[in-house]
Amino acid sequence: MKDFKNKRSTITYLGLIATALTMVSCSTSEDASPETEVSTSSTITEVVKSNYKSMVTVSTSGTSITLKSQGIPDHKTAYWGVGNSLYEAQVNGQTVTPGSLTTQNFVMTLTTNPSEASTKEATSLGPIGMALNGVAIYNDREGGNVAVDAGTLTTFDLGGGHSGPGGLYHYHFDGKYTSYDDAKLIGFLRDGFPIYGRKDKDGTYPSNLDSNGGHVAATADFPSGIYHYHSSKTSYLNSAFYVLKSGSYHGTKGTFTF
Ligand SMILES: [Zn+2]
Ligand SMILES: [Zn+2]
């Protein structure tokens, strides 16, 4: 008799759990996008619009987003030059390149519906993406398309950036003003995929990155998952710097004029 009662109450209890689960799953499925690789298109547009800073002009047309910026940092750097209110002396023995820092005319287009390219194109010298403050993102290469060397490493500021020919300031590394050992959104690359700091949103370093430094997983901005890049968790040439992006684009790159 006692056993029977216990069984009944267990069954009732399980029934309640099942009912609760059904209710939860129903309400979730109404809000969540379908399992099929959701069109991230509206989401990408929203994330771009809500995360790019005011100095970046965002416009959309069909499946294309255009970002325009002057490409100058909104933060302190030695590259502003002594006397500028945003001048910050280099530290730790870093120097500056002879280059100044000049207003640019950046126009980057990306698709709102990025997908994996069948043939991956290598990133090349020059802008490969745009950070949230409108500064250009470069890969790990310098003039002549050679890897940043120890000498060039001494020219980077605390933001992981420096200025090149034409006063074009750009980031090769993560840093104080974008992301530093965290999971912050840094910007988007020309192929429409976002790039984040070294960590995933749960605070761990991703362990399944592909050879282009990305993987499909949930991020704070894309809870249902998206392909995204991470800055490298390995210090570059044993320096204090961590490369934002090396290798190829995962998708197909859009234009970046400057
Ligand atoms: Zn450079
Ligand atoms: Zn990730």
What are the defining features of this structure?
binds zinc ion; disordered N terminus; 258 residues; 20% strand
Mean pLDDT: 87
Beta-strand content estimate: 15-25%
How many H/I helical runs?
A: 3
Distance between the termini: 83 Å
Structurally, the number of domains stands at: 2
For the largest beta-sheet, the strand count, sense and barrel status come to: 8 strands, mixed
List the ions, cofactors and other small molecules found in this model: zinc ion
Query: Segments where pLDDT lies below 50 for 5+ residues?
Result: 1-37
Structural class: alpha+beta
User: Got a strand count?
Assistant: 14
Q: Please estimate the helix content.
A: 10-25%
> Can you write the helix and strand succession as a string?
HHEEEEEEEHEEEEEEE
Shape descriptor reads globular
Question: Reading side by side through the largest sheet, how are the strands ordered?
Answer: 8-9-5-4-10-11-13-12
Rg calc: 23 Å
Protein name: YHYH protein
Organism: Lacihabitans lacunae
Domain YHYH: 109-199
Pfam family, one: YHYH
